[in-house]
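Hey,
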Amino acid sequence: MIDKLNAILTNKKLSGALAGVSIRLAETGEVIFEHNADKRLKPASNMKLFSGAAALETLGVDYTFTTEIVAEGEIIGDKLYSDLYLKGNGDPTLLAKDLDEMAESLNELGVREVKGSLIADDTWYDDVRLSEDITWTDETQYYGSQISALTVSPDEDYDAGTIIVAVSPSDKVGEQARIEVTPDNDYVQIMNQATTVSSESSEDISMERKHGTNQIIVKGTIPVEASRFRSWVAVFEPTGLALSLFQQALKKQSIEVNSVKKEGGKAPGSAKIMVSKESMPLKQLFIPFMKLSNNGHAEVFVKEMGKIIHHEGSWEKGLAVVTSYLSEIGVNTETLCLRDGSGMSHVNMIPAHEISELLFQVQDKNWFPAFLNSLPVAGVGERLIGGTIRSRMEGTAAEGNVKAKTGTLAGVSSLSGYVMTQDGENLIFSIVFNNYLEEVEDLEDEIAVVLAEHRFVSEE
């Protein structure tokens, strides 16, 4: 095994690059192979193993997030004599249909008119929307969405703070393409510069959100009779989108409001809950979080931990909770640099040795089954099982065997998790590659397959 691993690590793709590898026995934690495992490297989304473990330990597998409609006034007749607050408490799984149901519940309480203002309360977390190392070009991408305590997802992938923009061809060449936005809203402004072209022409659609605005410019060409093109776009100030969608939901229920305060505010302490919506528990939320590598979920978990433990929903306080937990379980935090929860930062630095140490230490936690179940499974095509490695290592001993978290940034690739050898020995592995010029996922897969095929006891 060691000779095979060393051979893989001399591949020309890694010439001039950095490779950190750490492999342990899962039962004892004994290190059986390491290569540059003490070198601090960018982990990309392997950072989610750290923030995720800390969240399960701190919050618990049954932890839920709530969204509330609160007011301090009374309902007299069919009128609410009070401001009405839509109060977010961090739920990253809130959908437009949930807001519709909450408005319907308000209707069932007899409210037909709000004499005060409709106000969004996102003060559960601080008002810093992006972690400090998010780049300008990432800000409009779904993986770089802004973090708010009041935010809405467009579908059940739960990419909170984003919308889906779908472009379809019109019936005739030369006409403007058709555009559909999910959830339907008037919070964003679509500038449609996309054209339908002949079937022989190529599809070339691009989308750009103008910085600091919700003006989304759609450009390019789409062939007639082509399938629709979809893209997820992060909105500017997701609290405003949630408020706008709730305002639409109230209109559907014929509930009138005196005014809408776009700037938001804090609900008074005397306000009472009129309607509430509870999220799925953390153990269920971990499936889209880990399987699909959802960055927004990781950052919400960090802020939630900061709020619960230090009464401040910020990256600073949340990462302090993560660091404290890691130190408690034996991870050497002196050698770490943690800047966010998702791994988007190019300033995060973690040695492969500490990743494998984390994966060893968490095995005796009562929440470990939920953690393990959330990891992508190699070669299993179902999206919410195989996740980000569903099309990798197919037809090998690693298929259905390797359970591991991926990580990808420009010049960064990582794969860390669990695998069983041919003779039933469970192994923990962490592979982190930095500063390569050619794609290296195949080398990660080769290492994982070598481990899956290995026999500690030679056959007689």
